[in-house]
Request: fold
Amino acid sequence: MNVIESHGARIPVIGFGTMTLKDSLCVELVEAALHLGYRHLDTAQNYGNEREVGEGLRASGLKREDVFLTTKVWFNRLAPGDLEKSVDESLERLKLPYVDLLLIHWPNAQIPVAQSIAALCNVKRDGRARHIGVANYTAAMIDEATAAATEPLACLQIEVHPYLDQSKVIAAARRHGMAVVAYCPLARGRVPADETLQRIGRAHGKSPAQVALRFLEQQSIVPIPRTSKRERLAENLGSLPFELSGAEMAEIGKLKKPNARIVSPPQAPQWDS
Reply:
């Protein structure tokens, strides 16, 4: 599978997002995804399924080093000392000695960025995370975090789909050599009904979802679609072996709309757009 490289990290160009997946269904879908060819798994402390994701990884029979696994520290565990302790708890649940990528899940206005980034860098230095990064940061926060970091920040994970303009924060991430990973890449069900994506999909023999995922992949943005259905696992992976034309990319790029953000919880920062 193709990868996006960033500060030594080699992130497979599509991943399997596991938010909301629980219990045996999570185990089964993680194992199924890996058998289909996924090599990138995304979980988080707050998802409550790290234990099941680890179990699914072991059930797949794949070597640990062949799967790129991300988890995230919840915003109430960012204080120095507490962040490191929370990572130990994540590794215990995953039953793994390290994760490939550890992200701060949301910023916390009560904890200075420099303090949480310093704790994150400690985790990388001692080998509990191969690479580190942030999620849901603004452009200004990215500049502040990279200035404070003593280890390279390899990734920014944010909401990205055809309807949301994230150009400012993506540009900030790329100024610092960070890979961009997209959650909610299918806009939580809006994509399949989109007439533009349907029409472009018909021209390629692809679904609207595959078109939306390919739109991101061709911009070197890594989508991590979540699904609870096995058939969707295969469909999403089918976004890789085709190419959208420049004109099609431009047309999809015009789908951006005001107020298109889906995820904005109380702990969210003041967004760039």
Observations:
- Residues 23-36 form the longest helix (14 residues).
- The beta strands are 3-6, 9-12, 16-17, 40-42, 68-73, 99-104, 129-135, 153-159, 179-183, 221-223.
- The radius of gyration is 18 Å.
